[in-house]
Design a protein that fits this description.
Length: about 400
């Protein structure tokens, strides 16, 4: 906790940093940590918006009590039921059993499946508002950003949007809480890793959420993860708009799977040729070394994707199969694709990458290249057409 952080006169940040957890959702690495943001409005009536992860909330209730300063807690607004935001709900209900829980029908259903029957529930899905006194709260239903019940709370008085997971990022808050206190560019890669790994599967619903937010005057965005965007909320909105439209940067990511280094040599050769043909942003990843969350992020980020796999028991390499499956699972769209691989003793790498290409329907920039054993210089030359076509098409592609 940082002490008292005021978003405005009567709106307080009640977030916590979590630098202990290794894996978000027990799958996504957190090298920079994460924060869980809860917000509190102290008006004639009081409202808490979301809570925090149970493993990070040891002082949470004490701070709530301090800010209440003898008042009762009137509303607990649940924008999102995922447990990184409802970890303190049980403790909160024990302490404030009369609090009214605010959400929608899906909130109630999911809440009761985790925490038991709600006695005091207010469904705000049909345009209901909550008048706290000075603050008038409205609610925007934004399902699937990131679970079916997700919604946003808009304070029409101060034009503050409490956005749930939307506009969030991985990364703890290192002193700075507001966007104008931070070089926000340092969060951009982690914001995209968060977006692509956690929310990106529902990009179509993110675009629907943007449509619902159109016309709402937003002066400040309070997400459940990452900084509060009070000076330039448009910055994070523009990034989320771009990512959810699958608009990508000029660049190529090469992901290779290699047992003994021959397929890796081909990846380096192709990367070099792409650079010689004018592409400056090139990332080459070893699928056996780099966590898949970074692969997904960079695939989301760049226009060009080249996958190269050795053959393994007549299939593609298992970890390459994993990333291919995840690409399909996340529904990543709008990429130029290149494929290469090595045959070993019976093939299988390129053959199965070609099947993936048929499924994903990205535009393949050139014929797949398959090389046998230790590739010769002449074999490497077969990759030139792939590299040149990728570089050219990525440069020419106006999305
Ligand atoms: Fe931060 Fe979907 O929970």
């Amino acid at each position: 906790m940082f002490g008292k952080i005021q978003v405005s006169d009567k709106i307080f940040w009640l977030g916590v940093n979590d630098r202990r957890k290794q894996l978000f959702e027990n799958i996504w690495p957190l090298p920079e940590g994460v924060c869980y943001n809860s917000y509190f409005i102290v008006d004639d009536k009081t409202a808490l918006i979301d809570t925090v992860d149970f493993c990070a909330g040891k002082s949470f209730l004490a701070v709530v009590e301090k800010y209440l300063n003898g008042k009762t807690l009137d509303y607990l607004i649940i924008n999102h039921m995922e447990l990184d935001h409802t970890g303190e709900v049980v403790n909160l209900l024990k302490k404030y059993p009369d609090v009214k829980i605010v959400g929608n029908a899906s909130t109630k259903r999911i809440f009761e499946s985790y925490f038991g029957v709600i006695a005091n529930f207010l469904d705000v899905s049909k345009g209901e508002t909550i008048d706290l006194g000075y603050h008038k709260l409205r609610f925007v239903m934004t399902p699937w950003v990131h679970w079916p019940e997700t919604m946003m709370t808009y304070d029409a008085t101060e034009k503050v949007l409490f956005a749930g997971d939307a506009f969030g990022t991985f990364g703890a808050l290192n002193g700075g809480v507001f966007d104008d206190e931070i070089d926000v560019n340092v969060y951009e890669d982690e914001a995209l890793r968060y977006y692509s790994n956690v929310v990106g599967k529902y990009s179509g619903m993110v675009q629907k959420a943007f449509a619902k937010l159109a016309g709402i005057d937003i002066k400040c965005i309070c997400s459940t993860h990452g900084p509060i965007w009070r000076s330039n909320p448009q910055k994070i909105m523009d990034l989320y708009d771009k990512w959810s439209k699958y608009e990508a940067d000029e660049g190529v990511v090469i992901v290779f799977a290699s047992m003994y280094g021959n397929t890796e040599d081909v990846a380096d050769y192709v990367g070099r040729k792409i650079a010689e043909n004018g592409i400056k942003n090139i990332k080459i990843h070893d699928v056996s070394k780099t966590h898949i969350s970074y692969l997904i992020r960079d695939i989301w980020k760049y226009k060009g994707v080249i996958l190269g796999s050795c053959s393994y028991n007549s299939e593609m390499f298992p970890l390459m199969e994993h990333i291919c499956r995840e690409i399909v699972h996340f529904g990543i769209q709008n990429k130029k694709l290149g494929i290469f691989g090595t045959f070993s003793w019976n093939g299988g790498g390129v053959k199965n990458l070609n099947k993936f290409a048929e499924d994903i329907k990205w535009e393949q920039v050139a014929d797949s290249v398959e090389l046998k054993g230790i590739p010769s210089d002449a074999d490497y030359g077969k990759c030139d057409a792939l590299a040149i076509a990728m570089a050219q098409q990525v440069k020419d592609w106006q999305q």
